[in-house]
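If your schedule permits, I should be very grateful for your opinion on a structural question. I have a record of one protein: its chain in single-letter code and its fold written as discrete structure tokens. Kindly check, if you would, that the fold set down in the tokens agrees with what the sequence suggests. I remain grateful for any guidance, and I place the record below:

***
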Amino acid sequence: MTRNQNKADTFLKKIRTGERILKTKRNELDALEYKASGQGAIRYDKDHVQTTPQNYLEMAMEDIIELQKQIEKIEAETEEVKAEAYSTVRKLKKPEHRTVIEWFYLNGLSMVQTAERMNMSERTAYYLKDDALEAFGVAMRKK
């Protein structure tokens, strides 16, 4: 992989990484909100009595607020990278370069799905992706 390709690939992978982290954080937030709502938090059967500390709800709310701040920050960072990526993609001269970058990196399709949509073999799609990354890396340097 050339320096331009590596730089472009690393930059574009930030989008998928950000989206994966966001999904995880949102799941954490959902679980924390569910837990804080008290549903199932206290058992009152005769064999087991579980009590919840009075400040549990306060602590949970602090955690929820902190997690929401983290999510907002990651969303903003990911959107910033996406905006820059789309701006750079528009500068690519070849439409097939724009397409492979958009579908694979920005839309999160697999290379098999990208190849199918572009009516080409997976191997050809990988070669095209490498060419597109080279062009993308060059376009990034021009900024």
Q: What stands out?
A: The CA atoms of residues 89 and 102 lie 8 Å apart. The chain has a mean pLDDT of 88.
